[in-house]
Amino acid sequence: MFAVDRQLIADGTYFVAERDGGVVGCGGWSRRRTLFGGDRGVPRDDSLLDPVREPARIRAFFVRPACARQGIGGLLMRACERAAMAAGFGTLELVATLAGEPLYAAFAFCAIERYELTLANGLPLPVVRMRKTLARD
Prior knowledge:
Elements: H1 6-11, E1 14-19, E2 22-30, E3 56-63, H2 72-86, E4 91-97, H3 101-106, E5 110-118, E6 124-133
Parallel strand pairs: 3-4
Antiparallel strand pairs: 1-2, 2-3, 4-6, 5-6
């Protein structure tokens, strides 16, 4: 579930934050229907979204724990928002873990649905689908 989605890289919509030559964070956005997950072993739909009617997806945000609360997530999110807006999207959507929910709420995402995913080992993972309307300048 938490694995690489090479489609984000191929689309040029995945960003990496570096400090002193090392990766300290990464995250991206997508114009494709798949809402979360890696590109192996998970059902996916890589068809394109309609930017006028559908939200772009925020995908695969990670910040190195030692670098948390240093603005890295914010830099990545602003880059994603600018790029999605430039592609014609006015809304963003994501699926957050409960640990990630406060981060996305700080970026003005609102919870619209709570549910559980079943991990490969059969355990449930509570998640929150969240949405944000982008402000046009």
